[in-house]
Amino acid sequence: MQNVDFRLGKKPFYDNKRFRRGFAKSGDFTIAEEEILIRFGDTMNLLELGELSPETDEERHFLQVLSDEKQAENKLEKTWVKYIHLARDRKKFHTLNGKKAAAEPADANIDYDDNDDIGDDIVDDGSTSDD
């Protein structure tokens, strides 16, 4: 990882609520991204919450990225933005059945009652046209 002037977290960062088996084992993060989250996640989280004041230009830039003033430039910022997206955005729900609900047939609104003469024009008297 490139040299970044960003404080390490005071404790390892884990999100056991959303990533119970770990960041990398979730399939969403690489091992390098997992290491970034564990090592710097505590600091990034506290900066985001406003419980820690930025001390370096990188930390100030990080806050500008979070407020959509700047684009994420380094792996640390990109990883945290990815984490926010995966941990906080609404998850897509996929059903086992991929079919959409069947469209209603065009004649579904026609009201047939018992007195309709549907099929009265079809007569089966048992005779054939050869008779």
UniProtKB/TrEMBL annotation:
<feature type="compositionally biased region" description="Acidic residues">
    <location>
        <begin position="110"/>
        <end position="131"/>
    </location>
</feature>
<dbReference type="Pfam" id="PF04219">
    <property type="entry name" value="DUF413"/>
</dbReference>
<protein>
    <recommendedName>
        <fullName>Macrodomain Ori protein</fullName>
    </recommendedName>
</protein>
<feature type="region of interest" description="Disordered">
    <location>
        <begin position="97"/>
        <end position="131"/>
    </location>
</feature>
<dbReference type="InterPro" id="IPR007335">
    <property type="entry name" value="DUF413"/>
</dbReference>
<comment type="similarity">
    <text>Belongs to the MaoP family.</text>
</comment>
